[in-house]
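User:
Care to share a sequence and structure tokens?

Assistant:
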Amino acid sequence: MATLRLRGVSKRFGRTEAVENLHLTVEDGEFFVLLGPSGAGKTTTLGLIAGLETPDNGEIYLNEVDITGVQPWKRDVAMAFESYALYPHMSVFDNIAFPLRAPTRSPRLSEQEIKAKVHRIAEMLQIDKLLDRSPSQLSGGQRQRTSLGRMLVRQPRAFLMDEPIVHLDAKLRHHMRGELKLLHEQFATTTLYATPDWVEAVAMGDRIAVLNRGRIAQIGTPDEIYNQPVNRFVADFVGEPPMNMLEGRFVRQNGSLQFDLGGAAIIVNDRLGHALDRADGTEWQIGVRPSGV
């Protein structure tokens, strides 16, 4: 059971504002996606929650308890990294089992219990045949799955996933999306998942926060993010091909509200016409999905 809250969190690296005045709530049991391009602040946000980074301003709460200054190993959250962060001298089995053997873990598990947990996760990730190998003997995708397994085996209060399946091939990536969602349904663990892939975000997220240069551009359900973008950045970033943007003016002609493109005009839906009743003569941009034409 975990609710994550970030209140006015900011983090600067030199002159770069990686995260700026971030207000975010991830509800208990929610699968929440951070979506944005490289440099948007996704990894920094996860690092702040995990305790790997210290915010310059703001507070971070887990179940209404301020964890801003709490040591990472006391936060009861688990993180999977885009970089594998595996122990090179350990086997795949021992890498996955490592958090189960931690001296700070309570209650302690027997080696038989650890073996059962590791094998269950390894089978799900299709690396059960690789448990005796070292990380140097694995492909990039296999290393990523090992890193993911080390996070999943813990069953903490919250999962933090930083582009965890980016190095997998397309077929396995599609499979893992389904497996991660199935795992979430089984354990209902609060999950914050970062990705630059809007298809992945829409397919997996209960809600999505679109980040741009360290700030939230929009928060909403996948349907809201796709069909009701609040600004040009979200409209361009979400969707392939991107949304078509038309520039013109709303004008009144023959008793109806029309969008004048300068040589062509679109009659506005009656429902929208009422909402835009005061838009006569105003310059606007409207977006049209190719699928909506």
Remarks:
- Residues 170-187 form the longest helix (18 residues).
- DSSP finds nine helices and 14 strands in the chain.
